[in-house]
Amino acid sequence: xxxxxxxxxxxxxxxxxxxxxxxxxxxxxxxxxxxxxxxxxxxxxxxxxxxxxxxxxxxxxxxxxxxxxxxxxxxxxxxxxxxxxxxxxxxxxxxxxxxxxxxxxxxxxxxxxxxxxxxxxxxxxxxxxxxxxxxxxxxxxxxxxxxxxxxxxxxxxxxxxxxxxxxxxxxxxxxxxxxxxxxxxxxxxxxxxxxxxxxxxxxxxxxxxxxxxxxxxxxxxxxxxxxxxxxxxxxxxxxxxxxxxxxxxxxxxxxxxxxxxxxxxxxxxxxxxxxxxxxxxxxxxxxxxxxxxxxxxxxxxxxxxxxxxxxxxxxxxxxxxxxxxxxxxxxxxxxxxxxxxxxxxxxxxxxxxxxxxxxxxxxxxxxxxxxxxxxxxxxxxxxxxxxxxxxxxxxxxxxxxxxxxxxxxxxxxxxxxxxxxxxxxxxxxxxxxxxxxxxxxx
Length: 442
Known about the structure:
Keywords: Carbohydrate metabolism, Cellulose degradation, Glycosidase, Hydrolase, Polysaccharide degradation. This is Beta-glucosidase. It is an enzyme of class 3 (hydrolase). One of its GO terms (molecular function) is beta-glucosidase activity. By secondary structure, this protein is of the alpha/beta class. It is 41% helix and 14% strand. It starts with 12 loop residues before the first strand and ends with a helix. The relative contact order is 0.14. The mean pLDDT is 97.
């Protein structure tokens, strides 16, 4: 039996998160164009078992059922992403009316059930036509992203007030362009750095487009991790600082401070034009943080193409994905952000946190995981960090990128043969926890 959660502040927003390519399916309906993930997942050897998102959870057709699950769960918000190639099949030009119609229907269904829609404009499914022009390696993609944002907010902005521009630009840069384990599958290592700047420039331009359309809240979601040196020697400590700069500061500093860490600014060189950092640091209303685990880093081996060596963390339980479970790392991350950025740090929403477990509806491991991480958030709030929301990853089992359908993150189990949804015990636990929050003295 898990003890009741501590009382969260009035107005604290509890929600669930998903992403378009991971759940929507319907990849050729209503004129949707191909994305880099369509191309990547249909390339031999790129995903486990050759799995694709062609059908995924079929959320495109079954969204009323999924909205009903959200309402029954009792969360106040739903973070989903909009598929850029569903809105603009080639990434530019006149938007697809039928593509936007789907998100119209979804937003209306959420509002009818009292669930706040929180769209993410880019969660890695870049239109393939833009990748063919260079993708995020090229500056033009930032402008295309701004234009796409304007089309979406023009259609949905009368009902959607909270927006997220990008999801985890560090992961898209590293896995997609540096290591090649995600779409588009490029293996550029440190030569992928332009992807960081162009994504951030796209974020800043999109933030200004959202502001111009009257958006009430604009965010970016960064994946952040506490970085632990593997040892006390100078090589490990230096490598950890380098990893922190690449993973965390590269994406937080320019947004919050208007500058890159010195050595990264030098590496980016002429890519950063006059006025870029002013655009990138367009003020935010909140910062989205995705947390899963700390990262342990040692000095790189001689001849390594990278200045750090991420290592396995021992001594902690692990998820089905093999990720260490360290709830205190979330408290440390949040208090560390407050110490680093001070008054420049806006309010924070934990926009993803969750774990993969074995199939089945009995998932005490997930209950314990969520309970511990929610307590970690509460500890950070008690320590003075302004955290205003927590979104579970994820509502549904889904297409887990290169891991296909092997990793199950959902509060709701999905049978990928029949597409039936079955709430897990963690779903029931969270519903009871939210009911208790609502009933506790204020």
